[in-house]
Specification:
The structure is a homodimer. By secondary structure, the first copy, chain A, is α+β, with helices and mostly antiparallel strands. Chain A contains 7 helices and 11 strands. Helix content of chain A is about 40%, strand content about 20%. Chain A is globular and about 55 Å long. The first copy, chain A, starts with about 30 loop residues before the first helix and ends with a helix. Chain B binds a DNA duplex (30 and 30 nucleotides) through helix 6.
Chain lengths: ~240, ~240
Amino acid sequence: MPQDATPTASAIHCADCAVRRLCLPMELGTADVDKLDRIVGRRFPLAQGELLYRSGAPFASLYAVRAGQFKAYRINRDGSEQVTGFHFSGQLLGLDAIASGVHSCAVVALEDCAVCELPFADLEALLAKMPALRQQFHRMVGEEIARMQSVVLLLGKMKARQRLATLIVRAASVYEARGYAIDKFQLRMTHEDLSNYLGVTRECVSRQLTKFKQEGLVRVAPRELEVLDLPAIKTIAAGTAP
Amino acid sequence: MPQDATPTASAIHCADCAVRRLCLPMELGTADVDKLDRIVGRRFPLAQGELLYRSGAPFASLYAVRAGQFKAYRINRDGSEQVTGFHFSGQLLGLDAIASGVHSCAVVALEDCAVCELPFADLEALLAKMPALRQQFHRMVGEEIARMQSVVLLLGKMKARQRLATLIVRAASVYEARGYAIDKFQLRMTHEDLSNYLGVTRECVSRQLTKFKQEGLVRVAPRELEVLDLPAIKTIAAGTAP
DNA sequence: CGGGTTCTTGACACGGCTCAAGCGTAGTGG
DNA sequence: CCACTACGCTTGAGCCGTGTCAAGAACCCG
């Protein structure tokens, strides 16, 4: 884990952050954002492949993603890896450790990223004083639970084709919320990670993608996906069409 | 949803509750438990099959389970049901609605149950004033997230046999934490619900249970399960043995 | 006792897993 | 600049676990 902030770190503030509308500041007033800004610890970059924290690390802080994509995963007893989610700018990382005080997941940067550290003790103290912040925090925690529930739905009920379609639809909406084009985006994760997350094999992801390609729904470039027919993919994701 | 508390409801307090060690009061001091006790709204029973709340209902309160078992489920667009979890005494229900303000799941009583209503606005106000309660609340929210993660793991990586073994192990630990025998317990849910939760078919659950029976690991009576060889089942659940 | 629900069991089909080989691209070092 | 390697992706063949469909048994409740 990197120990130092970048030289420009002190110039970055929540008030100017590109993703403040998606992050804890959300609808907070200027004064409240300032107070939040003051408890933020280090704001630092992570290079692709670097670990934000590893599984088993003691919990001290939450991390807000300012830029980039992350992968969260667990290591099972048998040594196998389970990807529990992909995380984007504006999201909070580390919520799963609040209960036990230990990070149950490891989190790794899928590209060059930037995060803000939120020492949990300070955040808790601030939550006590600021009802609006408390509401936002509970909102984000609730969103994390809702997100997990939708993953359960995906893994419990869908076939491979529908799972992949669902992932594409979600990726599109994630990029849309961040102001990017929804019809062409970069999938930073490998098929390996993708398949792990979707609960199928690498080969299966590859085959399903090939099918989508043949049906003219997507165009695939290395590490990039162009969505040609989002409505059709949405139909597949909804399960109303095969 | 029932509208009236039982005649004896006013006599019930958190301080005397059988599951206070598992619920929000946990390690709180007497004074703090009293304050929590005062914001608890209705404490009421639910008959088997009654809905605590339905999907889409506006969120106003969390519910603490005082006694009994619940099933939480979603209805997909195509009308199918997805069981998202089973809930026991001491657990908080409704956390998934904090983000959106609307319950995304419905919750139904699998047997005669009793719950305590926690108006969320009141709880929030109390959280601001009581650091210890805040900590407990965050702990329980974190546990919910961790619980969901383990479901994701189950659905994403395990075969049917391992899933069922995992469910039995968890049920045993749930009953143990509540002071019941770990080797003989009642499964209030139908195979239908069980299979739905585990992401397999009814028939598959039945077949796997039959196998366990043949191997001398369990004995099955209607709606009841006797665990004969918990260590063996734990081994299966861990994935180290088939 | 009777009617509906729940559970069991069998036969068969199919989706996805496994194993294996081949391909393309990026990065490395001579 | 071009092997050479490493890694990720694609594609195929065969098999196994589950889903599906169907029938019957057991159970529960009125």
